[in-house]
């Protein structure tokens, strides 16, 4: 079997991550509708990373890295947003 033998959505996935991994995803989630959040990283990690790298990266760089606005990054830095308050 090869990627071109798969249904279009699975073919696209296989082109990105390989045939074997696509089959694993299929076996795990077949029949379900899966949506992927825009944010890859947990808020706890983002806040911790920002605090640890505050002096090493600019607000603009942090915003770009994590997909947040510069304003939101500043709020994280200033402790204005706690993980449990977050609804994003």
Contiguous helical run count: 5
Q: How large a portion of the residues is in β-strands, by DSSP E? A: under 5%
Q: Which sequence of SSEs, written as H and E, runs from N to C?
A: HHHHH
Q: Mean pLDDT, nearest integer?
A: 90
Largest beta-sheet details: none
The dominant shape is: elongated
Uncertain runs: none
| Helix share bin | 40-55%
Assembly type: single chain
Instruction: Report the count of strand segments.
Output: 0
Rg calc: 18 Å
Q: How many structural domains in the coordinates? A: 2
Q: How widely separated are the two ends?
A: 40 Å
User: Which structural class fits the helix and strand makeup?
Assistant: mainly alpha
Organism: Candidatus Blautia faecigallinarum
Pfam family, one: Mor
Protein name: Mor transcription activator family protein
InterPro entries: Homeodomain-like_sf, Mor_transcription_activator
